[in-house]
Amino acid sequence: MGKPAMPVTEFASCLASVHRIVRCLEPRPQFRNVLRNVLEILASELSFERPHIVVQNPENGRLHLSLSLDRPVEHITYAPGSGITGQVFASGEPVIVPRMSGHPDFMNRLFARPQSVLDELAFLCVPVFAEGGPLADKSDQRRPVGVLSADTPCADMAVLQMRCRLLEVVASLVGHQAACLQEEMLRKSTHSTEQDDKPLPKAMRDMPSIVAFSQSMNHVLHHAAQAAPSLTTVLLRGETGTGKELLATAIHQCSQRSGRPLIKLNCAALPADLVEGELFGWQKGAFSGAHQNHRGMFEQADGGSLFLDEIGDLSLPAQAKVLRAIQEKEISRLGSEKALHVDVRLICATHQPLEQLVARKLFREDLYYRINVFPLFLPPLRERRDDILPLAEFFLQSFAEGCHKPGIRLSRQASDMLLAYQWPGNVRELQNVLERAVLLCEEGMIMPSHLPKGLRLGPAGKAPDEKHPGLLDEVRELEKLRLQEALSRSGGNIHRAAESIHVSYRIFHYKMRKFGIDYKAFLPQG
Question: Is the pLDDT reported for residue 65 higher than 90?
Fold first, then answer.
């Protein structure tokens, strides 16, 4: 029935399996495949049976089985605090059940194990935490998202504690992927995700500044592509610096109005008494200084698109006029009673909680419902870590060319710091950091000393040791070796090499550039 118990003295042999688990965790869109590979290693190489991950549903708070290698009983959920699984999630502490048979809190609901299995196996359950995420409290970015559990042969408590500790290590490695499962669960509760597998429109793919390797950003882009051809009003929501203006441009370029103008206005950049004039224009003599007629942005965008950034900062009078323009397709210039017809596709953006502004009577409820037809939430950069290094490489090459410093690369230590940082300023902050680093760099390699002090300091306020390679350094060396081996086998054919190690051409090509690998070195000689 089960695998033989592993003596405590053989704990070191687990490191090889943990090393293989770490190799599974390289950035890639298919986080479910990553997790499945991890579960397969737990089941095939270690003393675990039926490993599975349970994640909390953000909508109802209940715990749902999200991934398992064995076929479970369907439609079983747990409440936090209920059963071993619920207790571990609620307390954030692991639980060891030395023998499942007869344990008062072990419910045996997911797999309906027979009595013979319950008599011979123990049960281990550990919490899974993630950094940040759509449900994170800003005061505590580390939050529980679910639990990792597995059966294991009964053994002495010392052996079970060792196995439980090993499971905790694995849980700490897969927190990001478990958070992606939770995010996927949240998306599925509100939108269909079938279109996520379809190719993006060419206009969006060809935008060089669109960099999206993460599942969450891939989802946003596909929904933006779905909305782009229509006249539907799109509301882009997310923290400052997440790329809302860039996405608005992409939506316009993928629409049937791409040949017409896209006019942009940041409603927070102008005083309230000037915004109305910019939006709707004015007649000569409407106020002191109005020496000639002025076409407002609604008129300038006629037949095209109008992007209103930070629409939550519009004054209430301006909101009333925007609502009329949307409903009646008519505007009036300041100082004129003549109605002008305008045909404008509206794209709005805000970082503010509009629902709270509506409740406080600072934003019109009717306008809110008019612009909230197709909302898109742009995730902060800390929740799309798979995009950090590709974005950094994009900015690095762009600024290097502008400064006539070709060939600048990121050092491994600098890359580690970019990945570890929380990026409160999001993509815009990353862009500024790379621009500064390129200006400071004189030797072709971005080092930690070229990064701002806030990035160089670790959690304890100390700079990491740059002399000794860490785990990420070792993983990158293995990545580079696998790329070179794949290219060698394929004779320099990048497509075949990518297929042989089960990654996309885009990721393979990105990593080639990252490691400075030239495919020509692997072409057949002669």
Answer: no
